[in-house]
Known about the structure:
By secondary structure, chain A is an alpha+beta fold. Helix content of chain A is 38%, strand content 25%. In chain A, strand 12 (296-298) and strand 13 form a beta hairpin. In chain A, helix 4 (24-37) packs across helix 6 (67-77) and helix 7 (94-113) packs across helix 11 (221-242). The radius of gyration of chain A is 26 Å and the shape is globular. The two termini of chain A are 49 Å apart.
Amino acid sequence: MASLLRLPSLLSPSKPLLRRRLPAARLAAAAAYRGQASEAVGAAAPAAAETRGGDREGQVTPRSVDFNAWYTDVIAAAELADYGPVRGTMVIRPYGYAIWEAIQDYLNVKFKETGHSNMYFPQFIPYSFIEKEASHVEGFSPELALVTIGGGKELEEKLVVRPTSETIVNHMFTKWIQSYRDLPLMINQWANVTRWEMRTKPFIRTLEFLWQEGHTAHATLEEAEKEAMQMIDVYTKFAYEQAAIPVIPGRKSRVETFAGANRTYTIEAMMGDKKALQAGTSHNLGQNFSRAFGTQFMDENGQIEHVWQTSWAISTRFVGGIIMTHGDDAGLMLPPRIAPIQVIVVPIWKKGDEKATVLEAVDSVLKILKEAGIRVKVDDSELRTPGWKFNHYEMKGIPIRIEIGPRDVTNKSVVVSRRDVPGKQGKEFGVSMDPSILVNHIKGRLEDIQASLLHKAITFRDSNIIDVSSYGELKEAIAEGKWARGPWSASDADELKVKEETSATIRCYPFEQLEGTKKCFMTGNPAEEVAIFAKSY
Amino acid sequence: MASLLRLPSLLSPSKPLLRRRLPAARLAAAAAYRGQASEAVGAAAPAAAETRGGDREGQVTPRSVDFNAWYTDVIAAAELADYGPVRGTMVIRPYGYAIWEAIQDYLNVKFKETGHSNMYFPQFIPYSFIEKEASHVEGFSPELALVTIGGGKELEEKLVVRPTSETIVNHMFTKWIQSYRDLPLMINQWANVTRWEMRTKPFIRTLEFLWQEGHTAHATLEEAEKEAMQMIDVYTKFAYEQAAIPVIPGRKSRVETFAGANRTYTIEAMMGDKKALQAGTSHNLGQNFSRAFGTQFMDENGQIEHVWQTSWAISTRFVGGIIMTHGDDAGLMLPPRIAPIQVIVVPIWKKGDEKATVLEAVDSVLKILKEAGIRVKVDDSELRTPGWKFNHYEMKGIPIRIEIGPRDVTNKSVVVSRRDVPGKQGKEFGVSMDPSILVNHIKGRLEDIQASLLHKAITFRDSNIIDVSSYGELKEAIAEGKWARGPWSASDADELKVKEETSATIRCYPFEQLEGTKKCFMTGNPAEEVAIFAKSY
């Protein structure tokens, strides 16, 4: 009886079209996203796009059929985000925001442990500030949003809505830093930033997004370099250990370096469609901004020097990276460590007299898991069937589902299903309700899932990076949608030629390098390092 | 010897001018704030103001001499905030931001406990949205910042940088709400907002500020009313129990109601200069926005209805309220529950051979207090004298200072000083270093301080509210800078007349009312309620 109620046919992954039926409103939103992603219209053009896609009939596009459509469908169906009324803007819905909060909670602690304090800078920056650092203005001026009217009056000087805060940070640092005693100055802010992007994609590239930006000032180049490396290391650990994303940390090429930095370090992630995602960056800014803004200090010998600086950032784009790394046809799949809900408990009963005993058992399981620090939720709503709930929470990527029916209550056990292992294989019957056994079991499974997601992603990544020793081999690898890794010492012009001819860019010179001089695959000249080329978001 | 090193003369509150000597850079910032607060200039006019006030010679203005100057001096000297390059903007420095984080940490938990989820809406709102709700546009249009250029192009429709989010929230709610099953919808966002204010004051009124804004939609008026009341109650408890601010909760008059609300509830706080501060508000929006934006749902009987809504907010203004409620001539004074640092430990030694044993004792005290969950910091810097540190941490309002010198090490005890009780009276010698005794002692003192600050604020508040029964008495009370409380049932026009003639407004009809009909002090007509009138920030 209980197994009948569990609706095994609905759970079988062989019927995705049946399973993924969605309310019409959600689909309209998903279709609208796709509409939005593929065009660049005027400032505010919402209504028309919303009504499109009504012919999609309730499915989430299978990942293998159309990765981009799958991505936007999942975002709508899992209620992660919606799009705002202004073209290119995004509303982050509670479930998507909860993932961002999990990212914040982890990083915020790490930033403080490494000596940084949070603070807040105004988002309006005088236009003249942006012009002070030459390469900075060149990089950012095409994508600025400008406030020209305030309080009903035309402003004397246009205000930039911050695209990043180096300029205003340096303006303030110049006031606060006088002596070596004031260094290092290490701060971070959690904030919104605006970049007027023409081609947008939810989480990945939006007109406004949320991020943290760290900014530090040091007495020496060495200290700044150490800081820039430390922070890319914090990001790398976060990606591996929390998000189960096996990023490749490395250095950007000159062409790809941040506008205003001497060096940019990056973590590059391979998405499910094998495109690269720049998931976080850390910049050694040298003295570029301190010279532009006159940020100086008196050193221990009484000499006046310019400070050495870094900046580093991770944004809501990372949420998109999580979706595109782990998701499958059934929807989102969240690594347990950052899942807002780790365990969903679904009670199952048919006859009225079963309800009370089932709910009693559910309540006791809830209490046991909560006390053990597991993020658990019960869905005992009677408005939805268990089958609907199974699909719904799979779509939401919750790592573990616990089912409790009348037979389970009799046996004092529960059924445990893993989100990452489809069908019967991922299902364990008869797991004891005894508190210590249950807690150990669930904790163990959460760890298994965390490890398994990372392992799967590493295998996928490694099987899609091709070592190349000629430009022809690179072209072939890129044409297959893969990453190409090969010795590189050619010019910026050659790098831009590769981009033009293949759409691939240097994602990074990975930190992990084999020793010894190699031969540049483009020029045949000696090359100290290999570079990774790939198409990217 | 140890007592000599403690520099008692510097600690005596009788020499404020000597004690409050500050570095020149801080003073320039303080002076600049004052300059800024008293004028309204063009969009970005920072540099000139910065150099003023150089003749202030290192003191924080005594509170009794000039409350406003004292306020901005403390903000600069305690490094709470600085002002941004654009007129009216504020940089929240790490210590000021940490107080905001303490506010966030508490409220964020309470919001979740009461069923709200965090999310994020874009800050750019099409101008046409603002115009949809008649009283909303009337209230907000004079203070809007408008983006007119994006990505190098003039926009077809101007974008409003959000002054508040009711309009965009309703636009999205209309998409998400179809049925009674979708209700209640209860969300919150932590965000920056922009209001083009002409007269600004750090924390209290700035062009951009940080806040949380809750937004909810319900099936019935009763539910919405209950929610609006619940949230003003959350704010009231926070103010009393965490910030030790004895706010008066009540209902705003029609004239003072939020632009777009049917009812506005408020918590009103009395600052140290007796002016009122509106410290948080909660609005019953009725169906005003749901009618303007067509936010409808199908109820259980299949009827289509407009949703009933609320919104509620607390902002960084509350930090200003904390400063102006508890601060004194020595600077900031923080209630222990929201103090980023509750205990500062200052080691004292003179001879080199004393250093090691003192620092060892300091380290053990640090560990003991940390393990007990007390927020404690050690300042063992050798760049500053103990006397400098005493002043510095008093200025920063840290509730308890522990001093440990060679004699204390010998006696296995420490010296404990309360920030809120000046001089010898607030100082306890010979407090045992025994872990359980020390922890109990410090925890007890923190509770004492918390209670004492609230008690002091209540006494101050109650001694400065005058019950009036005629307009003459009100004028007298207001002229003395006090609050006037009296029966009121007069017209909006009368209310505006009072404002014009006395600068006082109705702060609220307090929830706490004596029963029975009274006589309106203005008209002599029957009045159901008393109202509180006061000058306000």
